[in-house]
Recover the amino acids of this structure.
């Protein structure tokens, strides 16, 4: 009996999911517990496991497609089918897969058959393949069909003989890219690349929706302060030197996280959420760190959460941050690793940004934007000298936090960073 | 200089004789090559001209004389080994496959192996299963071997001269069925480089790719198909290794259709290799998958009619071309 695999609900808020990647193809045997696909939800990319043994008989939703939760995405034939007395006597797995394939009505999902050259010519001539019936075997649309359609439409079918350059003798099995042969003149090919549209990933849709909400609904304002980080840099150099044999390498960001976590414990409204008719002050201090994702994973950003950050030492914060950032950039974070932040830090210092303002990550009441630590001319004790300074900019929800409260919080953070012993013990 | 018509066997004779006059290191050995002028009269007159030190009759022991010739090549001579039939090369498999093509590599460049093995390949003469081998399928699998299949007297002479001058082992596959074929060959000296296909017939609807004797069947099929309005481009590849995939790709980009005609069995053959490379290089240019015409996947039959049906033929090539062009 065939069994249906549907789009699973992978988080409470998930309404639809996108198939990012299939790990199986039609005819593949699968076992219970094996990963069959990567699913992108509104929050994360997650692996989908299957819970039966059998054979994938049909993939119903192609890579890149988004479908609502509960939609059938694949068919499989279960293990016991193989011993079905009515099954063909041939013992190979393929035969049972084929048997099921023919039993499933394919009308809606039948693949359009087009020869590669026909597809290319149709693209070049702007001919809609969907409206065509192919004259090749199994209805395959072939070159002749495109030429006839082009003639009927009065479009001149692009000639395949327009080879821009004589192909150089190629090495066996070369997969080198060939200049697309289209009905364009050489001069046209030399123009700037055409504009293009980029489909929204689930993450991009979520970023767009949440930040528009935040920007429109939260009365944002900003407060900035400069921090003298000479002492901190000196301490960091010393600690990293002494702890190197233990593999510890503290970043400036680790000190900022620690400083903010301690300040949040001291200033509870920075660990709070606006709840419409009341303000909720949270117990645990969970600091979120904005992590940008590499372009090859689709770009975007996620917020990795350091739980109970006020109770963690620098070494632990540093290790956790590194681990989460690495995981976010390679395999993706779990829902839990991205949930329950009560305050967020966004640091663009490593890119040489002097200062910037950030949009609050709801339901937080504040976000800290961190700029670069820059050596510059400063006045200390009435003397002009060289010092290292870093600018911190808080964005705040005025419904929860007023200006004076913000200034006091920043003073605490600044004090912690300028007197870094407080961060150690 | 003038051009005259000579037989394929005489083209081979001229190539060997000219190279032996040019280079004292070149010599010929094999069964009946000297006293009898060659089992197929390819070496006619050569004993008289070059003497018994350079035209050597051997015992019926392919493994022995092939191995001896490889030793001579390693020491700096340039032997031409004639196999009466490539079918007999199978008993010399160890020296010709395990020593000759690997010598340069395994000796770390100390010993080369400039040697030519030549003889008749292919079926068509009612010689039965064991004496009708098309060895190109087997041997083209081995790196280090150059494989040449001349389809005309002109190709035979120009390619054999190149083979004798080549510093690597060359397997030169002739055909008993073609030795008496006549063709134009210039009197002046010429060489044909390896890895350079010849357009035997220009066309625009389909690319026919072939090697050796089946090129003639392709040309015959192209004549028939022309009457049906199908214009075939026939590529005579001349060498299987090196394979001139560039010329194939250039033609297929023009025609969008490719039929490979290969007298070996289809499984793991030069034809399947060409198809794989065309699919990789011309994927977006094809209107249909590469069609292939091979000998039938059975031992060579003895009966004339069965043997003819078993081999690639103009009729079977026409059928494949029509199918490939959706005209079946």
């Amino acid at each position: 009996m065939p069994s249906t695999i549907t789009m699973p609900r992978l988080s409470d808020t998930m309404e639809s999911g996108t198939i990012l990647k299939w790990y199986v193809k039609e005819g593949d045997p699968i076992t219970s517990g094996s990963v069959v696909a990567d699913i992108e939800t509104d929050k994360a990319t997650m692996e989908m496991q299957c819970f039966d043994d059998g054979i994938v008989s049909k993939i119903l939703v192609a890579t890149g497609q988004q479908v609502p939760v509960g939609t059938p995405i694949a068919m499989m034939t279960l293990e016991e089918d193989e011993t079905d007395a009515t099954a063909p006597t041939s013992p190979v797995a393929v035969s049972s897969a084929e048997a099921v394939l023919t039993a499933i009505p394919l009308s809606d999902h039948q693949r359009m058959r087009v020869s590669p050259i026909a597809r290319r010519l149709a693209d070049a001539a702007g001919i809609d393949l969907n409206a065509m019936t192919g004259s090749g075997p199994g209805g395959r649309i072939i070159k002749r069909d495109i030429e006839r359609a082009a003639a009927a439409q009065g479009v001149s079918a692009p000639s395949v003989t327009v080879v821009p350059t004589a192909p150089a003798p190629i090495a066996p099995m070369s997969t080198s890219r060939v200049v697309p042969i289209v009905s364009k003149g050489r001069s046209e090919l030399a123009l700037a690349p055409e504009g293009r549209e980029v489909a929204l990933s689930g993450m991009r849709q979520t970023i767009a929706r949440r930040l528009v909400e935040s920007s429109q609904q939260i009365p944002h304002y900003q407060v900035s302060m400069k921090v003298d980080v000479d002492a901190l840099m000196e301490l960091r150099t010393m600690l990293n030197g002494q702890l190197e044999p233990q593999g510890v390498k503290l970043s400036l960001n680790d000190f900022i996280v620690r400083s903010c976590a301690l300040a949040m414990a001291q200033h509870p409204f920075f660990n709070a959420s606006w709840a419409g008719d009341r303000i909720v002050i949270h117990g645990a201090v969970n600091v979120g760190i904005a992590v940008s994702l590499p372009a090859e994973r689709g770009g975007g950003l996620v917020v990795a959460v350091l739980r109970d950050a006020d109770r963690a030492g620098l070494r632990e914060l540093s290790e956790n941050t590194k681990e989460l950032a690495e995981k976010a950039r390679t395999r993706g974070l779990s829902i839990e690793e991205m949930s329950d932040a009560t305050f967020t830090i966004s640091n663009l210092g490593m890119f040489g940004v002097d200062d910037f303002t950030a949009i609050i990550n709801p339901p937080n009441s504040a976000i800290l934007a961190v700029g670069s630590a820059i050596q510059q001319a400063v006045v200390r004790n009435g003397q002009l000298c060289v010092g290292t300074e870093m600018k911190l900019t808080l964005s705040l929800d005025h419904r929860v936090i007023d200006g004076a409260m913000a200034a006091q919080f920043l003073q605490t953070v600044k004090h912690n960073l300028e007197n870094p012993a407080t961060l150690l013990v | 200089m003038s051009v005259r018509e000579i037989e394929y066997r005489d083209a081979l004779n001229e190539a060997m004789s000219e190279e032996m006059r040019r280079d004292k290191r070149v010599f010929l050995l094999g069964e009946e090559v000297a006293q009898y002028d060659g089992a197929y009269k390819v070496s006619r007159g050569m004993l008289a001209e070059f003497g018994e030190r350079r035209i050597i009759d051997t015992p019926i022991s392919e493994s022995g004389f092939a191995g001896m010739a490889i030793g001579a090549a390693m020491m700096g001579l340039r032997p031409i080994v004639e196999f009466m039939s490539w079918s007999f090369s199978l008993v010399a498999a160890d020296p010709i496959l395990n020593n000759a093509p690997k010598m340069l590599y395994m000796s770390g460049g100390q010993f080369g192996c400039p040697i030519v093995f030549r003889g008749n390949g292919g079926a068509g003469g009612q010689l039965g299963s064991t004496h009708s081998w098309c060895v190109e399928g087997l041997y083209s699998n081995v790196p280090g071997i150059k494989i040449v299949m001349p389809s005309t007297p002109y190709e035979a002479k120009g390619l054999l001269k190149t083979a004798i001058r080549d510093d690597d082992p060359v397997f030169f596959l002739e055909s008993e069925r073609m030795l008496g074929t006549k063709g134009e060959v210039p009197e002046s000296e010429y060489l044909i480089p390896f890895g350079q296909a010849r357009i035997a017939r220009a066309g625009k609807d389909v690319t026919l790719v072939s090697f050796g004797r089946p090129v003639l069947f392709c040309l015959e099929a192209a004549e028939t198909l022309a009457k049906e309005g199908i214009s075939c481009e026939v590529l005579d590849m001349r060498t299987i290794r090196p394979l001139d995939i560039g010329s194939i790709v250039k033609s297929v980009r023009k025609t969008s259709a490719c039929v490979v005609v290969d007298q070996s069995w289809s499984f793991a053959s030069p034809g399947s290799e060409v198809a794989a490379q065309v699919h990789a290089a011309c994927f977006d240019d094809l209107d249909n998958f590469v069609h292939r015409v091979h000998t039938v996947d059975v031992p060579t039959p003895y009966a004339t009619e069965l043997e003819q049906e078993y081999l690639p033929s103009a009729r079977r090539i026409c059928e494949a071309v029509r199918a490939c062009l959706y005209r079946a």
